[in-house]
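[job 0417] fold request received: Carbonic anhydrase
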Amino acid sequence: MKSSHSCQAIVVICMDFRLRSAIRKWTDKTIKGGFDKVAIAGGVKNLPFVLDQVELSYKLHHITEVYLINHEDCGAYGAESTLEKHQKDLKFAKKIIKEKFPHLKIITLYQNLNGQFLKV
Ligand SMILES: [Zn+2]
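[job 0417] inference complete; emitting structure tokens
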């Protein structure tokens, strides 16, 4: 039986405080149906953890969308924090989540420190 509380999406972001206000503006504008939020250093870097959270969000709140957001100058990536590396990790995370949850829509984004979001 489905529980009565549902939301539209899960949003996976880095814990980095510098991104917070731009993300809030962006989610207010983009996601109208509510969302679960996971803030973890490196965003999708710890994929097994992210996968668990997506699964819980799917089971508990019947989400239909997954937003994966990595960002510029991420401390969890250190010197590896290049656009190419983030693109690679985001695409891989998308592929793995899609294999497990084929019905979910997955949106991957790269956030610049100036607050811009780039579709990956
Ligand atoms: Zn970060």
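[job 0417] notes: Strands lie at 9-13, 35-39, 65-71, 105-111, 117-119. The chain has one domain: 9-119.
[job 0417] exit 0
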